[in-house]
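Limitations
The C-alpha cells in this dataset are predictions for the assembled complex, not deposited experimental models. Users should treat interface geometry with appropriate caution, especially where small molecules or nucleic acid strands are included. An illustrative entry is reproduced here so readers can see what is and is not provided.
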Amino acid sequence: MENLHQYIYLADLLGVAVFAISGALAAGRKSLDLLGVLIIAVVTAIGGGTLRDLLLGRSPVFWIVDPTYLFVIFAAAGFTLIYSRYNKPPLQSLLIADAFGLALFAILGATIAESAGVPWIIVVILGTMSGVAGGVLRDIITNEIPLILRRDFYASAAIAGIMVYLLLNEAGLPQNGAYFAGFGVALSLRLAAIFKGLRLPVFQLPEEPS
Amino acid sequence: MENLHQYIYLADLLGVAVFAISGALAAGRKSLDLLGVLIIAVVTAIGGGTLRDLLLGRSPVFWIVDPTYLFVIFAAAGFTLIYSRYNKPPLQSLLIADAFGLALFAILGATIAESAGVPWIIVVILGTMSGVAGGVLRDIITNEIPLILRRDFYASAAIAGIMVYLLLNEAGLPQNGAYFAGFGVALSLRLAAIFKGLRLPVFQLPEEPS
Amino acid sequence: MENLHQYIYLADLLGVAVFAISGALAAGRKSLDLLGVLIIAVVTAIGGGTLRDLLLGRSPVFWIVDPTYLFVIFAAAGFTLIYSRYNKPPLQSLLIADAFGLALFAILGATIAESAGVPWIIVVILGTMSGVAGGVLRDIITNEIPLILRRDFYASAAIAGIMVYLLLNEAGLPQNGAYFAGFGVALSLRLAAIFKGLRLPVFQLPEEPS
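Predicted assembly:
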C-alpha cells in the first residue's frame, strides 16, 4: 500500500510536468513573455487539482502543502523553452502531451475523490474535472476555444477511463491493475480521437427566432 | 419549520432543473456533442451555489454532499434533448427558463447566507451571486456576452427580490410569505425586462486617449 | 505590532478602493449600466484576495467576515461615477490606479500568506495572485485581453516587489521597512513599464503544422 502511494505521487508529479509542457507550448504559440509562459504552465498544471481540492474542502490545496509540484512545473516549462529554441517540437506535441495529462489526472482525481468517501457519480465528475479543468483554463487564458468544446472525444475519454477503473475495482481487481486499465482506456480513446477522428453525436437545436 | 426545509429543498431541485434546461438549450444553439450539453447543463445548474458554498466555507459543496442534484440535472438535460428533437421549444424559452432560475436561486442563496449568520449586505451579495453565477459561466463557456452585462435588468432583479425578502422578514412576516414575495418580485422584474425592455441608466465615460 | 496591523488594514482598504476605481473606469469604457459598474468594481477589488483566501483555506473569505470592504468599494465606485461625469479622468488613469492596486495587494497578499506559515515560493505565488487576479477577472469580464498577457512588465513587477520584501525581511530589516521597500519596487517597476516600455524577452515558438 505504501508502494502504491509513492507510485501515485510520482504519477501525479509526471502529470503536472506533462501539463506544464502543454501549457508552455500553448503559450509559445501566442508569443508571450517568459513570465507569461510560466503563468500558463502553472495554471494548466495545477488548475484541475486545485478545483478538485476546493470542491472537496481539502485546504490548503495540494501545491501549497507540497511545493515540490511548483518546482517540477518550473523545470518542465524551462526545459520546454530551451528544447524548443533548438528543436522543432514533434508534430502535434501539444495534443499528445495534453492527452497524457488528461488520462493521468482523470484517474488520479478519481482515486482522491474515492478516498474522500463520496458517491460514485461524484467520483466520476471530480475525476473528469481534475483531468479537464487545467486545459480549459489554459485555453480560456490563451483565448482558444476549449478543447473540451471542440467536437471530438475529450471529456468522454476521461469519463470512460474512470468508469473502467471503478468497475474493475468493484469487480475485485487489485487497485493497481484497475488504475492502469483506466488510464490506458482514457489515453487510447483520446489518442483515437486525435488520430482517427473518434467523436460523439452532435445535438443540433432547430432554429428558433429570438 | 420541517415543512419549510422540505419545501426549500424541492424548490432548490426545481431551480437546478430549470437552469439545467437553460444550459442544455444554450448548448444546443452551439451544436455541441452530447457530453458538451451535459457539461454546460451541470455548470449552469450548480455554478452559483458552488461559488456561494466556497465563499461561505461550506465544504464539501452541496452537490458533493447530496448527489440527487446531479441526477436531476441529467434528467432535465436529457428531457430537453429529447423534447427539442421533436418539438420546437417555446419562443424565448431560454430567457424564461433563465428568469425562473435567477429568481429561485437568488432567494434560496439569500436564505442560506442568512442562516450562516452573515451581515445583510453579504446576504444580498451572496444571494445575487447564487442567482447569476451559473448563467454567467454558461455564457462565458458558450462564448456569449453574459446576460448580466447586456443592458437589461438582470442582477438588479435578483437584488430587488432579495431586498423585498429581507424587509418583509424584518417586518415580521412569516418566512414563507417573505420568501414567496421576494421570488415574485425578482421574477416579475426580470420578465418585465425581457418583454417590456425595463433597464437601468447607462454610465458612459467621456473618451480618454490611452 | 498592533500599529502595523492597523496600518496594514488601512492599506488593504486603500488597495480595495483603488481597484474599485480601476474597475469602475474599465466598466465606464464599456458603457455598462450602474449595476454593471458596481459588479465590475467589486470583482476587481476583491477577486485577488478571495482567490488567496480560498487557496489557503481561510473561509469564510475576508469580505464576508468584514463587510467594511464592500462599503469602501461602493463609495469608491460611486465617487468615480460622479467625478467622471463632470471631469475628464487624468490621462492613463486606469493604468495608474491599476499599478497602485497591483503593488499594494502583492505585498499584502505576501504578508498574509507568510503569516499562514507556507514556504517562500508559495508566498511569492499567492502574493502575485492577490495582486493580479482582480485585474485579470476585470479584463476577462469586460472582454479585454488581460494586462498580464500583454507583453509588458506586470506580474513581474509584483514578483520583484515580493522578492525584495522577503529578502529585506530575512536580512533583519523591520517588517515595516521591508514592506515599504517591496511596495516601492513593485510600483516603480510597473510605472516604468507603463511610461518607459520596460518589458521581458518574448518566447516565440517556431511554426509547427497542426
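Some entries come with short summary sentences. For this one: The mean pLDDT of chain B is 84.
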